[in-house]
Amino acid sequence: MDKMHLTPEKGEFEGRRPMPQLPMLRRRALLLAVCAPTAARSGQAPLHVLVDGSIEMPQALFKDGQAVDGLQVELAREIGRRLDRPVAFHLVPRRRVAPMLAAGEQADLICNYLPAWLPGPLQWSRAYLDDADLLVTAARRTRPSQLSDVAGQPIGTVSGFVYPEVAAALGPRFLRDDAPNAIATLRKLALGRVDHALVGRVTFEYLMRRGDVPVDLHPPFVIARFKTACALSPRSPVTLTQLDGALAAMQSDGSLGRIFDRYR
Asked: What is the rounded distance in angstroms from the CA atom of residue 93 to the CA atom of residue 151?
């Protein structure tokens, strides 16, 4: 039987002529003319982007309580550049994401999500990123051929995450065993605390390439394939048309693909 193995973690400017002396009003007018575009840009309200504190790379990397790298960070920065707005990141608990976006107070946007994960009166952008929900099983157990094969067995999950297809298929026999994030869930699998775990494909493939979980695994069982999108607050000054326009331009010129490629 095919198995997957993940190994352990391991200026100055020279030669410029002096500006000739000009009357004070003319010099002020020249200065304003040169700085006007910059001033207009800096006057734009920031794009307030929420980042769920339970996610990990490749979605986001945190340092000193700030989101500094990852898919969601680079994507938001490029959207901000296209919209000519500075970007302010806000690290929040997952349970606060939907209500903060609905209220719109320092919360404009969150990306790489689905409406099923964030219920509420939110606006949703065009979909752009292929992903999937996977069921991974330790090689010490028989690989399930359908979801019903794991009914009544503890399954590693992430606290606050929703798994609608699994919940619908297993009902009360969906026995969650929550961990803070996907890495912790897969480590529980490696330690034998659970035999199965649910994980997103983008995150799983990234962790596989890094060798972050020392465990033999069967090939993943694909539960559902989907494309994620950005959720936009109904109170955001950014319109859905503007957001979709930025994403369409990023897809068209290849910048969106280049961002994804850096974290594959």
From this structure: 29
